[in-house]
Amino acid sequence: MITDAAPQLTLDSGFNQSDLLHLGESLRGLSGKSVQFVEAPTVPYPPNLNWVEFAQPQDRKLFRAIAHDAKLPNTAPKATTGQPPSVLASSASPSQVKVEVLNGSGATAKASQIGSGLASRGFHVTKTGNAPDNRVRTVVEYGAASQRPKANAVAGQIPGARVKQVASLASGPVVVIVGSRDNSLKPKPKPSPGHKVAGLSAKYGGITGTANCRSDTGAFAGPLSP
Fold first, then answer.
1. Of all helices (H) and strands (E), which one includes residue 45?
2. CB-based contacts of 168: which residues, under 8 Å, 6+ apart?
3. Which domains does the chain have, with CATH numbers?
4. Cα separations (Å) of 171 from 94, 102, 143, 150?
5. pTM (2 decimals)?
6. What sign has the CA pseudo-torsion 71, 74, 30, 33?
7. Around Cβ 110, how many Cβ atoms within 10 Å?
8. 136 against 10, higher pLDDT
9. pLDDT single digits (tens) 129-165
10. How confident is the model at residue 67 (pLDDT cuts 50, 70, 90)?
11. How far apart are CA 209 and CA 207, in angstroms?
């Protein structure tokens, strides 16, 4: 039974089947009422929206409570818009996103560079300019909670960028403040090369456009042949 269970678990290095057996024995006699299953809250990971990362400060509080054998906090996300968390955590299509790009990196022309790159990917860049102060990390700011998918879409194009809600932005465009560290876009995926079909007749001995198909008895043999 231990050998069946072990492959289904992700174990720390050095944790073997014998350790798993001892762990199982220590839980002998434990009733189902004494067990609580908790899912750690997660949010989309901006550099790759197919991944997730721990949500803070909920997870910090959760793990602290576990470590100190205290009552577990409520980790359920707060409903702010009436939309399910899965909707808020999704990513919008670039064509739906209006974005301002501000240069906070200290380098020259970074806003126009990032803005042009976003525009080439289908985003509507409404403005480029300079931020009032320099930043290290690139931040994608949004106002209303319903704009989170739009911010996710932009952050997904900039490795290392983080997403931040700023109430004062209301429902205006998403704002990118380019930092000195995260100030480049992900490489565009290369289009798959097309397959060339020229020369198939010469290579495989096929029928050319000038061949008389009716005379090719090998290809048209059978009871319904012309």
1. strand 42-45
2. 143
3. 1-35 (no CATH), 39-77 (no CATH), 94-178 (3.30.70.2390)
4. 17, 18, 6, 11
5. 0.48
6. positive
7. 22
8. 136
9. 999 888 999 999 999 888 899 999 999 999 989 999 9
10. confident
11. 7
Whether 80 contacts 107, CB under 8 Å: no
Of the candidates 53, 49, 47, 42, the one whose C-alpha atom is nearest the C-alpha of residue 85 is 42
Nearest to 146 by CA among 81, 76, 79: 81
Q: What is the pLDDT of residues 164-206, one digit of tens each?
A: 999 888 778 999 999 998 888 988 766 655 545 555 455 555 5
Cβ(180)–Cβ(107) below 8 Å:
yes
**Residue 135 corresponds to which tokens in the numbers above?**
């930043």
- For the chain, what is the largest distance between any 2 Cα atoms, rounded to a whole number of angstroms? 88
